Amino acid sequence: MTKRAFPLPVLHEPHRHDGAVDHAKAAAEFLADEARADWHDGALWWIREKRDRATEALPEWEQLRALASEIKEHTLSRLDEYLEQFEANATRNGITVHWARDADEHNRIVHGILEAADVRRLVKSKSMLTEECGLNPYLEARGVEVVDTDLGERIVQLRGEAPSHIVMPAIHLKKQDVGDTFHEHLGTPAGLADPQALTEAARVHLREKFLAADAALTGVNFAIAETGGFVVCTNEGNADLGTALAPVYVASFGIEKLIPRASDLGVFLRLLTRSATGQPVTVYSSHVHGPRDGQALHVVLVDNGRSVQLGREGFWRSLKCIRCGACMNTCPVYRRSGGHSYDSTVPGPIGSVLTPGLDLARYATLPFASTLCGSCTAVCPVMIDLDAQLYRWRQLVTAAGHAPPGKALVMRATSAVLGRPWLFRAAGAVARAGLRVLPRRLQRAASGAWGVARDLPEPPPQSFRAWYEANRPNEKPKDNSRH
Ligand code: SF4
Question: If you measure from the C-alpha of residue 348 to the centroid of ligand 1, how many angstroms do you get, rounded to a whole number?
Fold first, then answer.
């Protein structure tokens, strides 16, 4: 009997989409280019190793993780109070605070702000939230030019792609791909693949955009209830340049980004970059407490399903996430399948925990895109029990009838066999005989996708039970058939 350690929560599915995400199919497409898949795997593992070295250099690493987890859980348990405290203090600092229930409302609010200021050109930085809300196409359809200014984000924007990683949006691309993209869109010489020259070309291109922008938009890494200020972490300084030049600054962030006090910041800043890239600290950790002279500063606090996730027993701890990306870098499935295979703004283990809550039918395959090895949980700087939450989603997906029909049938058959010792013994005999006589091709076909890249073992001459009875004649194995 399956024992559930938690009640199944009521699912809120606000965004229905046509066409479910088929992660296994998309992963197979990524894996078809074996050399690229190997390179992708290796590049992410290199970052994972850098992360390990950075964390091992801090004797208090585990204490920091525990403290960060406690601060986040405390904040989430009183999120309403901290949000109101943030709003009051931010307003006092001269910031205009807006609240958005969902992606549509967020986009309407941002467009309203830009329209009122007659903004035609927006530079954007560090915001996966605006990817989640689909802000770029929304604004572009209304005549606003949107330029992503993080180098990786600009590369994927020029290619018309989505970011494939939350920290390294273009990690799926090689420098030759970037050279081709810049040649096509920025007019760099064909075949240019020198990272220094490509970065310089991007710098010149983006500098023009910064100087021409009427407004800047950034995400937020941490918003502080006690001060009404917030912190934006970047390695390129692009967020700072954009917000320093533009007369209108909009900062959009999910409501889970709150922390109570300025003194909590040190804990998170020490964890964030070590976990993300193995650096001791981000190059720029910019603190914003209010608008510059003559600048209008708006903050948009976005829910978009977060308060529902907060109410989901067994899942609310996922909101502790500080978006470091470490769970992606370590995940053997993410590394071998690429971020686009998840077809979700946040891919990898944390994406497979967060996204099914938005649309269970559409994202039903994502909780299965995991080996449940627990590596994600082991590296998470805020101690989110990712593997346990993935397992819970699998239960919900199956209970809601979204498991693929073939898989549901196999699971029912497996349950029937495992629940009846006599049937298990008979099935074992049939399987051993099948492995002996059936050609490999048929064996592979019978074991489905699992068997495509695996050789099945040589069958033993007898079952373990038969071996045990022959070799341990005085020790009768326990018969569970009556239990
Ligand atoms: S779940 Fe943890 S490891 Fe993954 S991105 Fe969030 S904070 Fe980082």
Answer: 9
